[in-house]
Design a protein that fits this description.
about 35% helix, disordered C terminus, alpha+beta, seven-stranded antiparallel β-sheet
């Protein structure tokens, strides 16, 4: 676009390391997706993102575009499976972010760079998550005589609380092209087919198939059949994967488009897509990821016909506008690039575009990386909105636009009130702290003002058919789940202080609890976010579409940002069906070493528990009440279909017998009463001091025992609890301040190369603990903070040694970083 050179990754095609024990691999960006899949499949593992182009696309390209694929319906897109990146910045500096451990700290630079289309830096190494292949995969072909019926069936399947591994659709033109090209077994007279995969334990296949068939029958399915064997299953999928190339039999060329909309509007949007083909007299074939609302209309044309080419571009223009009109996005997985940058103003206003430009300027101040991509030219930005500010100082402004709570917090009336309050604080230099329910707060400097989001407490939309919910930041997590439960759904976040925590607070702190093993983190569930920036700009990124690569994913930066970049006022999250059954299985032994081999077997087996927590004797005592036992325990939470949980309990019983470990099935009715105190142990809060250590899951038993011995040596048998299959060890520290300097030296020594986060401790504790920061990363984080908060008004909690702060931060309010970043 602007001259210069192209950097090709074709020779950087090595798989550098595969750690099956800890479920990750390190690869170079030129590794072809399918080559990587084939390699790990030999050992019984898979990498979930599987674009239709997997035979030729590279993992570096997948990272650049945040690529999806059929299996992303259940398992998430590329960003949900990237643990860390090595990136060369446009300045020539090397950036190392994330890594194989699951609890990386600081701003989510990994989430930001995935999907940035090579405009922020050059990825040179990727650390990605791998998973054991399911015990059974069943492929279903559902045949329809009407395209609208097929698209309605998609909505019905999701609305019934079913989340298949894949849910793909093809219409008649594509069916005929595929059959002409490769004979996949699709009926030539069908108007549409759905290709559905369900995976999991063998015992669940019959029930899942029955429920999906019932949903399809309500939408007049003509025929519903399951693949008889692996050969037939692969033939059905070869047809779907080869559809884009088979379309060459229909016309000399085609324009492959990419839009995404909420699943609930699929039937209406698909009808309008076909109407556009009639309007402009061009053929359109459809093959797309129906389960997540990601459409790929293939507009057919002859490049030798100039008028036809003109009409095809008009169709593309109107398709993109159609997506925006129906609450969707410009692109679900193919990216903005240079073609769609002119349409960014359809989805984003001045506030969002300038925020993206700020971010681009931090990473690439001279605009060297992929110039003329993603963002339109500044002169094409919409005009900025004006904000009428109150007169006077912060106190005067707050009294005008807020209610003062009983705890002396300022509670804004609405989003505009938040904007005015921040703009005045920015103008006057007034330090502020953003607060939800206060479950993570410590003491504050007296001159710091607290802005609370508790007044923003409306549930805006429960879109149960789309499996999304939109709420204001002050909505309580427990209250939201009560409302969702009436619809048979849940927001699967169970952080400490669950009964008091707000949704906005959970996002700002990236708190999730032990059940993140199955349900993942707040960032993985977030699809949209509205925030107010320092100067009063209101910005909105993402929405109800579960796939979206329209511009930079600034919403991910806010997850875990601790209120240091702006005020989160509204979020849209993915919901999930309520589990039919929940059970707990407990293992006990005199030493954590006894669990090591069984935990490894569990990590790499077909069992997918919701939570696996290792407790030292002090933690067991706090969960089960005072006890004289010196036993360690492992608690395994199981959630899902009733038949699935029953089978998992049998498998666990057999495994404990094989490893000669004592195991027992706890009462199901005590599930919540048991898991809530487990979640609270080692949690943040003004009354607790704790250390969170992130390590390889294979090191958890060693690390948990090591820190337990340290605490015992100093006469402090404190609770130690670990997310065993995630590699996160949490240690509750004593209240004795005289011991903290000693522990600050001893604990990191035991942790060796683990990353650490200290919460609820005096500020000098972390300094004694030998915090070492990667210079390039620290510099970049400071620049991001300065760009979004130039006057430093967003404050962390007191740095004075006689007060505690719930999250150790760098100067200027940066979230705390690991002490062993590299």
């Amino acid at each position: 676009m602007a001259g210069g050179v192209v950097i090709g990754h074709a020779r950087m095609n090595q798989i550098l390391a595969i750690d099956y024990d800890n479920l990750y691999a390190v690869v170079q960006p030129g590794v072809v997706n399918l080559d990587f899949q084939d390699e790990i499949a030999k050992a019984g593992y898979f990498y979930a993102p599987d674009p239709a182009s997997e035979g030729v696309c590279t993992l570096g390209g997948n990272v650049a575009e945040n690529s999806g694929g059929p299996h992303c319906l259940k398992y998430g897109v590329t960003t949900n499976h990237i643990l860390g990146l090595e990136v060369v910045l446009p300045t020539g500096q090397m950036l190392h972010i994330g890594g194989p451990t699951r609890d990386q700290l600081g701003y989510d630079l990994t989430g930001l760079l995935v999907g940035s289309e090579g405009t922020l830096g050059v990825v040179t190494q990727i650390t990605c998550r791998i998973m054991p292949i399911a015990e059974t995969i069943t492929t279903i072909l559902a045949i329809f005589n009407d395209l609208n019926d097929a698209s309605q069936a998609v909505s019905d399947i999701i609305a019934d609380g079913l989340v298949p591994a894949t849910l793909e659709m093809m219409d008649k033109p594509l069916i005929q092209a595929v059959e002409k090209s490769m004979q996949a077994g699709y009926p030539l007279d069908a108007e549409a087919v759905l290709i559905i995969d369900i995976d999991g334990l063998q015992v669940t296949m019959e029930d899942q198939t029955r429920r999906i068939k019932a949903a399809c029958q309500r939408s007049n399915v003509r025929n519903f059949q399951t693949a008889e064997d692996e050969e037939e299953r692969m033939r059905l999928w070869q047809g779907r994967k080869g559809a884009a190339s088979a379309v060459a039999t229909l016309a000399p060329s085609n324009m492959t488009t990419d839009i995404a909309v909420p699943r609930t509007v699929l039937p209406e949007v698909l009808a309008k897509v076909m109407a556009l083909g009639e309007k402009y007299d061009v053929g359109i074939g459809n093959v797309f990821h129906a389960g997540d609302g990601n459409l790929h209309p293939l507009v057919l044309f002859d490049p030798a016909d100039a008028d036809q080419v003109r009409r095809v571009h008009q169709v593309d223009d109107e398709l993109t506008q159609l997506a925006v009109d129906y609450g969707g996005v410009l692109t679900g997985e193919h990216g903005i690039g240079s073609q769609k940058r002119k349409w960014m103003t359809r989805m984003f206003g001045y506030a969002e575009l300038t925020a993206m430009q700020q971010l681009k300027d931090v990473f690439d101040p001279h605009h060297l990386c992929n110039p003329a991509k993603i963002l339109p030219e500044p002169e094409d930005f919409p005009a900025p909105e004006t904000l009428s500010l109150p007169e006077g100082d912060f106190q005067h402004a707050a009294e005008e636009v807020c209610v003062q709570g009983e705890d002396n917090t300022w509670q804004p009336y609405d989003y505009e009130a938040v904007a005015k309050l921040l703009a005045v604080a920015n103008r006057t230099g007034q330090p502020i702290v953003i607060r939800g329910a206060g479950t993570k707060l410590g003491q504050l400097e007296q001159e710091t003002q607290v802005v609370s989001t508790l007044s923003l407490d409306n549930i805006i939309e429960l879109n149960t058919e789309n499996l999304t919910v939109t709420v204001q930041a002050g909505v309580g997590l427990a209250a939201l789940n009560q409302a969702l439960a009436q619809e048979g759904q849940m927001l699967p976040l169970r952080p400490p202080h669950y009964d008091r925590a707000t949704v906005g607070g959970v996002i700002a702190t990236a708190d999730s609890g032990p059940h993140r093993l199955l349900y993942r983190t707040p960032r993985d569930l977030l699809t949209g976010l509205r925030a107010v920036l320092t100067d009063g700009r209101q910005v909105k990124f993402g929405g109800a579409s579960v796939k979206n690569v329209s511009g930079y994913a600034i919403e991910r930066l806010f997850v875990g940002s601790q209120g240091t970049l702006g005020v989160i006022v509204e979020v849209t999250m993915r919901t999930l069906p309520l589990p039919e059954r929940r059970e707990t299985f407990m293992l006990t032994a005199t030493s954590p070493d006894a669990f090591a081999s069984l935990l490894r077997e569990l990590r790499t087996s077909i069992i997918r528990p919701a939570a696996v927590e290792l407790l030292n004797p002090a933690a067991v005592s706090q969960v089960n009440g005072p006890t004289n036992s010196d036993d360690w325990a492992v608690l395994i939470g199981l959630e899902g279909l009733a038949v699935e949980v029953a089978e998992q309990l049998q498998l666990l019983t057999a495994a404990t017998d094989h490893h000669s470990i004592a195991g027992q099935h706890l009462k199901a009715e005590q599930y919540d009463q048991l898991w809530q105190p487990v979640t609270e142990l080692g949690s943040r809060g003004p009354e607790r001091r704790c250390v969170h250590l992130a390590c390889h899951p294979s090191e958890v038993c060693r690390l948990a025992e090591g820190v337990s011995l340290i605490m015992q040596r100093f006469g402090q048998p404190a609770p130690v609890i670990a997310a065993a299959n995630l590699g996160i060890v949490r240690i509750s520290l004593p209240q004795d301040k005289d011991l903290l300097p000693v522990l600050a030296t001893e604990i990191p020594r035991a942790a060796r190369d683990c990353s650490a986060k200290f919460t609820g401790v005096p500020a000098d504790f972390a300094a004694i603990a030998d915090i070492q920061l990667n210079r390039v990363t620290e510099q970049l984080l400071r620049q991001l903070k300065a760009s979004f908060d130039p006057h430093g008004i967003y404050q962390s909690y007191s740095g004075r040694t006689d007060q505690v702060q719930p999250v150790r931060v760098l100067p200027a309010g940066l979230p705390y970083l690991p002490n062993r970043f590299d």
